[in-house]
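Risk register update: the risk of archive-format incompatibility is retired. Evidence:
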Amino acid sequence: MKRRDEYVLKMQEKLDHLNQMITEFEDQAEKKAQLVQVKFLEEKSKLNAQAEQIHDKLNEMRVATEAGWEQLADGTEALHHALVASLHYFKTELKSHQATKEEK
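Archived output:
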């Protein structure tokens, strides 16, 4: 009986320790998720600002002279390419984070 009680006690201590580790991992995961959320909101804000710049250029193009709209078009194309590159980068970062999260 004593041996069984000792075993149960030891195993309970091990289980308690493992449960504590699980709780710590959960806390760490929540902190990382919060950081990712903050990063997402920052990047989303940047992407929205880039999209707004393109929108402003399009409005300028609508009222520009025949000769002037072509110059605006060049700038708009550059902004468009920058936005597409930013979107691809952000998408890659999200996939990378998801892959890292799934590995854990």
